[in-house]
Every structure is written in structure tokens, then in C-alpha cells.
Write a structure and sequence with these properties.
There is one protein chain. By secondary structure, the protein is of the alpha/beta class. It folds into 2 domains: 221 residues, Rossmann fold (3-Layer(aba) Sandwich); 157 residues, 3-Layer(aba) Sandwich (Rossmann fold). It contains 17 helices and 15 strands. Helix 12 links the parallel strand 10 and strand 11. Helix 1 packs across helix 3. It is globular, with a radius of gyration of 22 Å. It starts with 11 loop residues before the first helix and ends in a 7-residue tail after the last helix.
Amino acid sequence: MEKSIVKDITLADAGARRIEWARRHMPVLQLIKEEFERERPLEGIRIVACLHVTVETANLIEALRAGGAEIALTGSNPLSTQDDVAAALASRGIHVYAFRGENESEYYECIERALELRPNVTLDDGADTIAVVHKSHRELIPEILGGCEETTTGVMRLRAMADDGALAYPVIAVNDAETKMMFDNRYGTGQSTLHGIMNATNFLFAGKTVVVAGYGWCGRGFAMRAKGLGANVIVVETEPRKALEAAMDGYRVMSMRSAAPLGDLFVTLTGDINVIRNEHFELMKDQVILANSGHFNVEIDIPGLESMAVSTDEIQPNVKEYVMPDGRRIYLLAEGRLINLAAAYGHPPEVMDMSFANQALSVRYIVENGRRLERKVYPVPVEIDRRVAELKLKAMGIEIERLTPEQDRYLHSWQMGT
């Protein structure tokens, strides 16, 4: 198989320095890497990973390789690959097929090249590798023990496959581990989404009306951070319990049609399609900004926006202006792709430390148990989730309370009451 496809291998030294910086802020993953080096639980295992090629991901890949795995890495979004990181990993002998700015054909060609490794385990951020395997390379399935999925959007796709009886091998929903979704999705997405918007526009949040589409963990995190910077936050949500939670958290809650004339900035974090569409574009104010922090660039109806505009202009990097027939200007950021990775660095390493610790330990679990698992989506085993939390607390220098034997007996007894 072709060794690697990267933009510029001479960027390797710069990437290596950035990977080392992130490593110093990922203590839990480093402990697992040291364990893998001692025990070599992945010896002879071939892994294909379709993930955002960032400094944090590089440290996950190094941990897996320390366990004995051979790895092919490809990017999970055309605009999220950090070319210096791809070069650094390629220079270290990892099969890397990723470069920033891939078109759709190049994106899927990179996945095809990675699959030439004939994986035993797949790692995904959006389920694209699993989709390609099931659609075009079913001959690989007998060799695959299982997979891991990192993001909310991917887990939704995989659960739909499982419900249809189409999923051909077991997958662990790493996204749903509490030490992933409660911290990565909330604090990571909250901070990195703000960072991407600010990098692209230098937007002032204070005093502005910000419309947040979706109030899952990602939406909660972004709404909280926007409110903290002084924004007036409106939440648009379809699930009644989440909408009620947003109202109780102090946000205005309404339909997108009602919010459309009010917002200065709209951010989608739902995992669904056409959340903002023509009927909403028609109502928006002049110079409104649209951004997406969901995995795929389908949450904002970009073809619809294109069809309505009388002219378009790339007015600065990651900002495209659409002029409406009445002269209003609508600004779309980063082609509607993940704003936190397309226009910023993505989540901080301290948060990804937990997410990728779950990922690494889940890979080991699949290798050890995959042949006994059913073809469905599994949660991260609770013992892995708890271990990651314990290791993170230890790394932070936090000591927690322990149950006394009496307290433990009380919690497991029905005889003792008032």
C-alpha cells in the first residue's frame, strides 16, 4: 500500500513540536501509553482511524502504536486536518492519508487508501469508514473485530444501521462515555466553537443575540460560554425535555422561525439536516453570521442559500458573503463545516485527554472481546469510564471522598430505612 499522502512532509518538525506540547497536557493518555508499552495488548492488530488529524489525535495514535498496532490514519473532515501534524506522523512511519482542503473525491480516496491496510479495528469520527466498509468493502468485514465511534453524529448513524439490521460488526459508542460527552462535548465544544468564530470574524459576543440550535451537551456548552461573554442567548430545540431544561437554565426558547429575525449569530449543533433553511434566510437581518459546529456540513442548507443569493464573495478566510435580492448580506463561516476545527485548533488537549483515553481502552476491549460481541452499538464499559475519571482526578491533584464500609452496606441494603 502507498505509505502516505500528506501536503508537505517538510512540515514534520513543526508538527512534532506541537504534538509534544499537547502530550504534556494529556497525562491520562500518557499513563495508558506507558501501560500499552509494557503489555503490548495490540500486538499484530491493524487499525484504520478516520479522525480529525490534530495534535491530540496524534497522541492517541502514538499510544495505540505503543501497544503494538499498525495504523493507517485518514482525516474525518476535509478542513480539519493540521498538515504539520499529518507530516509528523507520516515521518514516524504511520500510514497517513490526509491533507487540509480535500475535495469530496479526494476525501473518499484517502479513506480507500487507508482501508488497504485491511483493518481489524476501525476508529471513526462521523462513521464514514464504517459506511464505506459496509457499502463498498464487505470483503473486509470478516477480519474486523469491531469499531469505535467518537462523535454524536456518528453514533446516530450507527444506531440507525443497527436498527435496520445493517451493522455487520460491533461498535463502541465512545461519544456516550460520561467522561467524553460531559466534558469533551460540553467544555471542549463550548470553548473551541467560540474560538473558531472569533478567529474567523473577531465577533463581539457581549450584547449580541446568539441563536443556538440544539441543546445536547455540545449546545449546552456553547450556550453557557456565549452567555458568559455577555450574549443574549436563544435556544432552538425539538426535544421537549431539553427545551424545558434550556428554559430552566435561563435561556429564551423558541422555534427557528421565531428566532430568525432576532439573531446576530446562529450556530447549529444538532447532527441533523437543514436546521437553518430558506424560510429562515428570508427573515434574517442584514449581516447575520451563520456557523456550524456539528460534524457534517448539512445543518445549514447551503444549496438553498446559494440559490437565493444574487452574488457571493469570499471576503476573508473562512467568511463567505451571500447577498440577497433585497440587499441583505448573510455570512457563512468555514463553508458550513466544523467551525471549531476549520477556523481554530479544535478542543483543548486537557479535554481530549479523557476522550482519547476512552478510545484507547475501548480498542483494547474490542481486541480482547470483539469475537464474543453482537453486531450492535455498545456503551463504553462502565469500568473504563470510571477508570478514566479516576486517572484524570489523580492527574489534577484532586482527592475524593471514599465510602466507609458502613456506607457501602447501607447503599446495597433494603432492610435499613428510616
